[in-house]
Specification:
The chain has 251 residues and is an alpha+beta fold. It has three domains: 71 residues, Integrase, N-terminal zinc-binding domain (Arc Repressor Mutant, subunit A, Orthogonal Bundle), CATH 1.10.10; 92 residues, Alpha-Beta Plaits, CATH 3.30.70; 70 residues, Alpha-Beta Plaits, CATH 3.30.70.980. It has nine helices and ten strands. The strands form three sheets. A four-stranded antiparallel beta sheet has the order 3-1-2-9. Strands 5-6-4-7 form a four-stranded antiparallel beta sheet. Helix 2 crosses helix 4. The longest helix has 18 residues. It starts with a helix and ends with a helix.
Length: 251
């Protein structure tokens, strides 16, 4: 899991910027809508919907937006029908990249993703070419200044946790997908503010990148995330703290 904490940090910073533009809300609303359409509007009987709503609340989405998205998905309100698509490929340095999309027009989305890959040092591959390199995990990040790792460990002792780590007072929790909702509920009921709360695809191994390829890879991922239909981008790159600092200072 080397490198994942850095990836999560970048994602949190990127997520904060997107929230200001409303992009993050749009992506989460799509996920809530399709979750409600596939599994119904009862949040207690629909784990995927519970996960999407937890992510919405972690992003401070108003309850009215959440309820409207659920009703659209359940058919109570008219709405666009979205299709789930996963694209897989490779970025600079041979890193694996997976792109999860929700789209109402596959003929628009596929060329956009392919062009972004090809113009920025990557290439789109066949379905299944990289997904075996990732595992589905629950990922929760507690914002700093609220608690400590020992307290969280004691609080979650009875749940299926795989890892708890602290980086600059930010606590990151990795758990099984099956335990995610329960762990999330325990933390939110305790009043903790979460900056990340989602089921994610985490790399089994990582690919180290030099400064040039690291900058190219981060740029490719940023541009993929900026596409309207893209929900999540996962990669298995590993960038050292020294290189990450140089890239940050150069921006």
């Amino acid at each position: 899991m080397s490198g994942h904490s850095k990836w999560a940090t970048i994602k949190r910073k990127k997520g904060a910027a997107d929230a200001k533009r409303g992009a993050v809300f749009t992506k989460i609303i799509r996920e809530i809508t399709i979750a409600a359409r596939m599994g119904g509007e009862d949040i207690n009987a629909n784990p995927r919907l519970r996960t999407a709503v937890a992510k919405a609340k972690a992003s401070n989405m108003p309850n009215d937006n959440i309820e409207r998205a659920i009703k659209k998905g359940a058919g109570t309100l008219d709405g666009v029908v979205y299709e789930e698509i996963r694209y897989e490929g490779y970025g600079p340095g041979g890193v694996a990249i997976m792109v999860d999309c929700l789209t109402d027009n596959k003929n628009r989305t596929t060329p956009e993703v392919r062009t972004t890959f090809s113009k920025h040092g990557g290439n789109l591959g066949e379905t299944g070419c990289v997904n075996y390199l990732f595992d589905r995990k629950g990922n929760i990040v507690i914002e700093p200044g609220q608690t400590n790792e020992d307290e969280v460990m004691e609080l979650l002792l009875d749940y299926d946790l795989e890892d708890i780590k602290t980086d600059e007072d930010i606590i990151e929790i990795v758990c099984s997908p099956e335990a995610f909702n329960e762990v999330n509920d325990v933390l939110t009921n305790k009043g903790f503010k979460l900056s990340v709360s989602e089921i994610s695809m985490m790399p089994q191994t990582t690919v180290p990148l030099d400064e040039k390829r690291a900058g190219q890879c981060l740029r490719l991922i940023e541009l993929l995330e900026d596409l309207d239909d893209v929900q999540n981008v996962y990669s298995n790159y590993d960038i050292s703290d020294e290189i990450m600092l140089k890239i940050s200072e150069g921006q």
